[in-house]
Amino acid sequence: MAVFSNRITSLFSIDYPIIQAGMIWASGWPLASAVSHSGALGIIGAGSMYPDVLRDHIQKCKKATSRPFAVNLPLLYPDIDKHIAIIIEEKVPIVFTSAGSPSTWTKHLKAQGIVVVHVVSSATFARKAAAAGCDAVVAEGFEAGGHNGREETTTMVLVPAVCAAVTIPVIAAGGIANGRQMLAAMVLGAEGVQMGSRFVASEEASAHLAFKQRVITAQEGDTKLSLKKLTPVRLLDNAFARQVQEAETQGASPDILASLLGRGRAKKGMFEGDLEQGELEIGQVSALLRDILPAATIVSNTWQEFRDASAAINSF
Ligand code: NDP
């Protein structure tokens, strides 16, 4: 039985309106199942998984927890049709789509009874997601790690703008790693929060330990939005990020930036632990993270802080 009830907990059949973001190289079945098992919603990040790997993670997640979990599908993934077929065959109940148009796959997934949520970075994209039939949107602000919107709208501005633009429930993301930030997002109109960076610094995340340790020592200003001429992505400062900034300052073309990026940079950094030459995708909120915790502790701490902060506000 739900300990808290709103449109997001009902939509996903979860206890707490807390969602762990689908993240390449970090959110496999150990993290997703631990989060779901604790009463929040865990997401398998399919972007870094070959189709047979995704199937294996889904099957292991189903064995590890009887609670609902989701798969995040970046829509620009090369084998997207294979991923969609696996999700349907394996009866995954919820899909979060990102980095692409929600009109391409939403109808198909919904016809199979799957709940579909799309990640947006503007009110305009939120309207498109609602028109495409999505059940909810994630409004992900500029503070977020990884792929990011070109508009650079912060969570504080984006969440109320998206809430005013659509009637479907809104999940806030970008810069949220604790219960006080969660309460702020809910005051802005969100009905749930999605946290990525906080769950990278978890025991169950599949990211390399060296990357997790780098994340929990990040300082203010250590992350920057890079590669805006290609696909904007928030990266932690390192030799590779500085090389990109230098090239961008000199007006490098998209082709030059693409060859500088090459292939597999994200895997090199976040999964193999090359902290200088790899891509290290993390949010601004990493500057507030100082510990690597079990996923269930992150969920319970966040919920407790949210409840304490709500009570403190009521006494104002
Ligand atoms: P690259 O093109 O640099 O490399 C592809 C990587 O993905 C490789 O490491 C490869 O693993 C792995 N991979 C998994 N499945 C496939 C496949 N079917 N074909 C080719 N490679 C595959 O891409 P990125 O690492 O930058 O991004 C990978 C994916 O993650 C993309 O779909 C992208 O949209 C998504 N992404 C999402 C982000 C988000 O914030 N939502 C952020 C960044 C990326 P191997 O090395 O073992 O061959």
What does this structure look like?
This protein has 14 helices and eleven strands. With 316 residues, it is of the alpha/beta class. It has two domains: 223 residues, Aldolase class I (TIM Barrel, Alpha-Beta Barrel); 77 residues, no CATH class. The strands form two sheets. It has an eight-stranded parallel β-sheet with strand order 1-9-8-6-5-4-3-2. A three-stranded antiparallel β-sheet has the order 7-11-10, with helices on one face. The radius of gyration is 18 Å and the shape is globular. It starts with 6 loop residues before the first helix and ends with a helix. The model has no long low-confidence stretch (mean pLDDT 97). The structure holds NADPH dihydro-nicotinamide-adenine-dinucleotide phosphate (NDP).
Summary keywords:
41% helix; 316 residues; binds NADPH dihydro-nicotinamide-adenine-dinucleotide phosphate; 11 strands; TIM Barrel; 15% strand; 2 domains; 8-stranded parallel sheet; alpha/beta; 3-stranded antiparallel sheet
